[in-house]
Design a protein that fits this description.
Four copies of one chain form a homotetramer. The first copy, chain A, is of the alpha/beta class. The first copy, chain A, is built from eleven helices and 14 strands. In chain A, the strands form three sheets. An eight-stranded parallel sheet of chain A has the order 13-12-11-10-9-8-7-14. A four-stranded antiparallel sheet of chain A has the order 2-3-1-4. In chain A, strands 5-6 form a two-stranded antiparallel sheet. In chain A, strand 7, helix 3 and strand 8 form a beta-alpha-beta unit. Chains A and B meet through helix 2, helix 6 and helix 7 of A and helix 2, helix 6 and helix 7 of B.
């Protein structure tokens, strides 16, 4: 971390800052040239918040050089992390596709979709039992019975299951039953929940918050990892911008950024990003081309009857067709799918 | 809600949609003119999600006419709600000021600040015991002992206390001890927590999420109210934009919008919005001038030693001086403070 | 266009609005059901501005059904437009790649890069003679002599040239010398310039404004087309968001949206979007996979010596390698490159 | 400017960078401590672009310490600039109010409004003759005849006139006839136009671009000032965010920021920001309370008949009433109005 003093800062103020940092165990490289004094702070600066340091009015700017995350940092772990989710490896050469409906609705629906997506080549299945809806009057998901149906679908197809957790009070059940526990965009900075998940050893799918920077997103992964659980997979799902044509704006450059900064796998959710089913295939192809480690795609056997998000769901036939194209693109960029 | 069919939509598709909505108990006003057919949906459309309806490809657009919230809706409750917080009434002619440090740090600190802000005319005091920090390595707040110190400060000064809840597992204690329970921006859509708060009758201070629209913010209030607790106070605290000079962009037009759409009180937090102490007085004055029902301002007796957010804290003397100006502006616009 | 009256709107107000619109030549489909009255406005509503109509306080909402653009509208021109740029056809099955340096700097530089990109398979060449820089103290481009060097490079390689216009006072020269005239993001709503360009018949490359919606972007194309020039090519180049890791956020869903709404070709500029050379290849591949009609990529033979934007330029070898991968992806999605 | 090298950067690379900067006349303070080498660049760094410097891959970060603007910089001009506009001084203790319709429509309209706003206490009058409209099919303003009507209104009332320029080809006429030439948000980075305006000595009202940072906005002022014209007044008019309830989001913290960074006057346009007439008075009061140097407010004698932006115009009576409240708030904060 670098601290730039104001040109006219009194030496006592500078010394006060140096003393404060040395008291916390940091070493200071002081540079006083023709310009303002510059303090290079040496040590583990992840505990320091530039915003808090700015409190001294004689400081002009504070620049973080090292990223504020450690366990998620590629600098300290150059190789890609590969996370095992019920036998499916996410983060390696093989790209993995998660598919399924937004919500679990009935046994027929979830088992039917599970079979369809498996046949089309999906590697894991998704389905929401607990649903975060903007309105308290919208369908909130089946809850625990939905989880039971997901288990039945897994038993039928062998596909590991991915579903969202909204509250730590069902964590024991999720740890027992779910293969990949999803944290939704709205809970990306629910730190109490992240800490609890960090105390398990379950794979966690951490969606990027609605308006989270890449750094904040990785810091949320760091919350989980700091508690001991390093099985974190990042998921880009579109960010909030001024554009209203799509529900969110899919940020594929974030995939490049997150993979540069961190060793964690990064997958993409084109369905929630666009909110428009007809755009999903094009965005899914782009996500593979950009180098994501996988996709999570909404597929529903009867979108018009879906209890939620039907408008962004593909029908199984369209999904199967898409899988073929995705395989082709993966091959061109030297990956498998 | 109004559904506009595509110009060439088959009559069967239109009828299918009408039948589906009638089955849910809605009445349909059908208009077929020279243009496309238009369906006016009559009934309580708060249960309908326009995005979900768009699944039918023959629909051109869906327009919500009624707002999706009910209990928070000014249309059904034209008078301003006034919420009693430990005897202090928020939402009436009298504007109320909440002041105090970002975090509770020591007995001396919190009691000292409490006395200062009381003397300066503050009506309630704030102080964080549980702190949502971007980094797991930053100070996370004192936790329960911090809450005990807040109670001591209340005993000394008589000021009701406001503090943030991060997890429902401390809810019973908060209900017992806290006068106004704050939900932070990062938990604005933590629906599990909102529902739990809705089952109490405690006043809740609901901060606007980092990138929440005014409608989403009120919908989060609706989550609490739908469970029975109507004691909700909204708090604008700046939104995320592309501008980097300030930490967030204070959106004072949101105060006007929220008060137009809802009967709930709306207060403003200029400290978190700007993140720069020297900007707080100007923004506080603007917030009073725009017609907010109160303010929440960070005050610290020694900002440079603050464990968090010192850079946005006012010293007690500056706060006292500001209170005088705020009173003057309140008078001009026909309010008291 | 649909106008929804407030539930309690007096009939005279409604009639006043109807009379006003009929006086402008529109027909009105009036629907008065159990709910509020709804006015369907039939006619060419592209001349109406919903914001202006909202002036009547008895109107609840105004909904545009038809898009506000006509000549650029795919609804009235279902087939893809193909624009001929110096013999290179943009908008058909063949994807086209424009490559070259940010600025023209010297004869050697521009001719050298032109030869390199031609050898690598580029179809057109770019190079800025007039540069819009944030600072008046930064290099502003070579101006007219730069244009002469571009012409020399064209003479040497046969590649059509693409360069940016910043002011209509050089328009005659541009019309004579340039194959594809670029309008930069900052001038996307410089309507005086757009109208002047609309009076030529030169192909125009219209970059999306920094914070323009897809609709506003197409409306700017409409400004050019309304004057008679239908040779417009759209270019997505990243939008402004809160994310700071990349210079802008590349919005590939905008390619899908623009091609759905309009028949005009859409190309992508991954170099300006990211602002980071190492991210350009991944984003270029994604842009091809998503179905763009072409790319515009910065290539410089010595990025470190570049007078502007070296940080986002590829070296010729890296560009040549990328072209191979792009061809492979194009083939998978049924296009040529 | 501070350049931080990567920890493992070879000494030759560092030396290459130093040599390059020294060749441009800069002095370098080199600091090599326990951490990475840090280069302090001494000299007029406003000519350097951090983005361009980042081209060397051995550079970790580049931090600008000095702001990139000079003539607009408060550091070199600590006192507030006061600009004389036809005898009205903008930027001093006295706050100034500009009022009038969006567009000039008829002689009766503009003279009528001019008289009304003068009587209510406005100090200057506005009216658009050339209108930048999103659609080429919307009313584009009366053009030159509109300017003539503005002059008549000035002759009748004595109020200086403010109107927007869209193209340099009418500049001579504007210099002759207009008291304060407005550059609209869409042309804030039309550098050709800014340079031309910089070669006059007319007062310029520079609106903040739709998605411009405070720094970019001041850099556009710098473009005008670098050519010699220091009579620039900044105008905050709302920025583009994800919020859709208001047309734009008024950013009052930008007033504080711009006045801290620059000595130029800053006024506020609450009408274009909100786009909703009923919100204008509250926002105008907030703008005065925050310390703006003036306001520009849309007033129309018959908003429903306005050819543009009637929905955000106040009627003269409401404007007169507002002026009284504004005076009261100005007094409280130690200003006049």
């Amino acid at each position: 971390m670098i601290i730039v003093m104001k040109p006219n800062a009194p030496i006592e103020e500078r010394n006060k800052i140096i003393a404060g940092l040395e008291a916390k165990g940091f070493k200071i490289d002081l540079s006083t040239g023709n310009q303002a004094a510059i303090l290079g702070v040496v040590g583990d600066t992840s505990t320091l918040n530039p915003h808090d340091i700015m409190v001294n009015d004689w400081i002009e700017k504070v620049l973080r050089v090292q990223e504020p995350f450690k366990r998620a940092n590629r600098a300290f772990h150059p190789d890609d992390s590969v996370i095992d989710v019920g036998g499916v490896k996410i983060g390696g050469r093989q790209m993995q596709v998660i598919a399924g409906p937004c919500s679990v609705e009935t046994r027929e629906q979830i088992i039917g979709v599970a079979k369809s997506v498996k046949m089309a080549g999906a590697h894991l299945m998704r389905g929401g039992a607990f649903k975060p809806r903007t309105s308290p009057y919208s369908f909130q998901g089946m809850g625990m019975p939905g989880l039971e149906l997901l288990k039945e679908a897994r038993a039928e197809t062998g596909l590991p299951i991915v579903t969202e957790i909204m509250s730590a009070d069902v964590l024991d059940k999720f740890v027992e039953d779910v293969d990949l526990i999803q944290v939704g965009a709205r809970n990306m900075q629910n730190y109490s929940l992240l800490k609890e998940l960090g105390r398990t050893n379950k794979p966690i799918l951490l969606k990027r918050g609605l308006a989270a920077t890449v750094q904040e997103w990785i810091m949320s992964a760091e919350y989980i990892m700091a508690e001991g659980n390093t099985n974190v997979i990042l998921c880009e799902r579109g960010i909030r911008t001024y554009e209203t044509y799509t529900r969110n704006t899919l940020d594929l450059s974030a995939v490049c950024a997150a993979k540069k900064l961190s060793h964690l796998p990064v997958i993409v959710d084109p369905s929630h990003a666009a909110g428009l089913w007809w755009m999903v295939p094009a965005l899914a192809k782009a996500a593979v081309a950009v180098g994501a480690d996988g996709l999570i795609i909404e597929v529903h056997n009867d979108p018009e009857k879906a209890l939620c998000d039907g408008a962004q769901s593909l029908k199984p036939e369209r999904f199967a067709e898409l899988m073929g194209e995705l395989k082709g693109i993966a091959r061109i960029i030297g990956r498998d799918l």
